[in-house]
Amino acid sequence: MSRNISKLSGRKGLKDNLFQRMVNTTSKSKNGKEIKQLAEEYHVGMSTIHGAESFYEFLRPEHKEKKAWICNGSACMCAGTQGKVRKKLSEKLGEDKIGMMFCLGHCYETSSFHYNGHNYSGNDIDQIDEIIKGKKINSKKMHSKSFATKTVLMGDDLSSIDRFKKLFSEVLKKDKKETLKTVTDSNLCGRGGAGFPTGMKWNFCSQQKVEKKYVVCNADEGDSGAFSDRYLLEEQPLKVIFGMLVCAYIIGSDEGVLYIRGEYPKSIEIINGAINELKKVNLLGKNILGTNFSCDMTICIGQGAYICGEESALIASIEGRRAEVDVRPPFPVVEGLYKKPTVVNNVETLAAIPCILKFGAKAFSSVGNTKSAGTKLVCLDSLFKKPGVYEIDMGTPMKKIIYEIGEGFVQPVKALQVGGPLGGVIPIKEVEKLNLDFQEFTKAGFMLGHGSVVSIPETFSMVKYIHHLFKFSSDESCGKCFPGRLGSYRGKEMFDQALNKSNKIPMKLLNELLVTMKKGCLCALCGAIPVPISNILKYFTHEFKDDIKQDA
Fold first, then answer.
1. pTM (2 decimals)?
2. In angstroms, what CA-CA distances link 458 with 414, 433, 461, 463?
3. pLDDT by residue (tens digit) across 144-173?
4. Domain 376-457, CATH 3.10.200.10 — does that match?
């Protein structure tokens, strides 16, 4: 069925993609007539449209009834800022008009909320009267700095259209195989978490002998504590688009799409502006710079589904299907968007391409180590004395990142969750032993992922933190597989009971549940959530002594 829907959706292509049409139609529809017309236009059943629109948080009727939304990410929760924000918004707008959004990307100062199409954080809540009146608030910018041996992502080497044109002109003059070899030799691995070699992925796709291919920028990875994608989209938009354009040129694609989180309105605005500027000077569109290479870019705006950070769910979303994870193989490089070969790359991965091509593979690969080469953006949350996003050499000791770059903590912290909601929860003493390295983190039973760092204070209950993780996975599960759909909800129920003291946690049942989810879930969301939970159970057993019962 999904194959048929993909092909039917693909008849109109990206410029008139079903997902964006569905979003626009749903927002205007009053009696369902428009939805029926849309289904008929794309030759899909009404159930396909209704099934998809009901999946997304922002398209649900209850979402439309709200006026403001509070960030529900782990960083804001641990910082303890949500209560104050909710109280002030409720006083002004009414409790029934306040909703929740998952991670607005302001983890460096927390107190985050969304109102009237804009995100706010820090002391902005104290100016809520002015915000409601429509006055512009000059919010504090995130602190950003490079500590890398060779600055790759934060440099100004692609800060203008002229520099973009000059570098891409050089790419067009070279043989595609030469450029691909440079990317491959750089040892650049995907920065989204999986760490797959970028050059290898591009090569696989380039070998597919079909007329139509796609490039997708995955800008929907909204890990709590990670605001690196937001930084790059807003501060380095040309680097991201350049990486996509080079990929399109190498694999033989004439179309790309940036799937950007709806929670990042400023990012969407800036990227859209950059695309329009590039079109004006023939760096996007037909016959770029007088060559036979043509490529255009489209933006798709996410609608509040964390699972779209998984590449097959993201592809399903663009096609207008429910954002469910597909079984692989086939992988997207063989059969992706509209069942055509597709490269899906993370924002940070694409942003590294300009520097690699400008300075050469050796300059990039010489930084870090053999398997985890180059630099990495690391995000430090508001509980650090010096929160912000930093570019750091791969292989840098975490101890240096925590105490030299981050300058330690503003209050006692007992653990860090590194790599988003699916990353390991690591006691401070253990994380100090690690280096910033994909393979090293994996070997130790953790995940580096986006490089997000969420600080868990000494005073924060680990029972409450596990409840938060289970609730997150139950809310955001795509629902396709039984272990993910039901398992995460049953885990949440156990910790609901523990928190309200109605029942103790059955440890034997909990451990069996974690094993079932880890081995049986289709996606990394519900399949990886047992990792941080198991970490907490292992390292913080003493916090559970009054809340558990040992099964016979």
1. 0.96
2. 5, 20, 8, 13
3. 999 999 999 999 989 999 999 999 999 999
4. no
